[in-house]
Amino acid sequence: MRAGSLFIIGVMLFVAACSVSLGGELLEERTESFTLQQSARLSIQNVNGNVRIEPWDGSEVEVTLSIFGNTAQGIPEGFSVEVSSTPSSLEYRVRYPGGISNMSAAFLVRVPRELPLRTDVEITNGNISVLGPHTVNLETANGNISVEGAAGGAGAETTNGNITATFTGVTEGMALATVNGNIHAILPGETGFTAETVNGRVSSTGFSVESSSRTGVTVSGPGGAKLGTVNGNVTVEGF
């Protein structure tokens, strides 16, 4: 964890709206607000649970955390959520005790509309959705990834899931990758990229294509983005 206020979230109940669980019953919910500067880093590391980052009209970043599990068992000893906050960084890390598989922690993050952040999300089981002018570095193993209006970043990766993404800008070397799933990306028309699949089809519109086949497309231009899947289709649209 980076320097900042570090504390463990205890077993407390707060009433607020939050995202959909992966199953189980609501055990705990809390909402906290943070003041972050432009291009601050938002980091979430978790095993089970969906993450949604969306714009809102508030002046602060608002994070609602919902913990789901078995009400008869409650929240087990050893489960914790670590939070580290400074004006330039907000980090969440969820820790699970060994042998616990029936719990999840869902995040709903509301960000002021004109506040771009560097969003780093790493989870194992769950969907990731990011809306807004952020740079993104997103990873899940089992889940879908949705990006809308992002400014670039390292990109998005999943193993079992689809990727749907709209970018207003592309960072050099950005990658969108899945193994079992489709990719549908909307990129600036001047973007250069390669798109490939093994078992599926690649199609593109709105670009000056350098080379193409059923399973691969290459487009010259700045950015050098890479889009790829093994079992699925890749569709790229330019604007």
Tag the structure with descriptive keywords.
239 residues, mainly beta, globular, 2 domains
Structure in a nutshell:
With 239 residues, this protein is mainly β. Helices cover 0% and strands 51% of the residues.
The helix content, as a percent range, equals under 10%
Number of domains: 2
The rough form would be described as globular
Termini gap? 40 Å
User: How are the strands of the largest sheet arranged?
Assistant: 1-6-7-3-9-11-13-15-21-17-20-19
Q: How big a fraction of the residues is strand? A: over 45%
Assign the structural class, choosing from mainly alpha, mainly beta, alpha/beta, alpha+beta, or little secondary structure: mainly beta
Give an overview in words.
By secondary structure, this protein is mainly β. It folds into two domains: 1-118, no CATH class; 127-239, no CATH class. 0% of the residues lie in helices and 51% in strands. It is built from no helices and 22 strands. It has strands at residues 5-8, 25-34, 41-45, 51-56, 61-69, 80-86, 89-95, 104-112, 118-122, 128-131, 135-139, 145-150, 152-157, 163-167, 175-177, 183-187, 193-196, 202-205, 209-213, 216-219, 225-228, 234-238. The strands form two sheets. It has a twelve-stranded mixed beta sheet, with no helix packed on it.
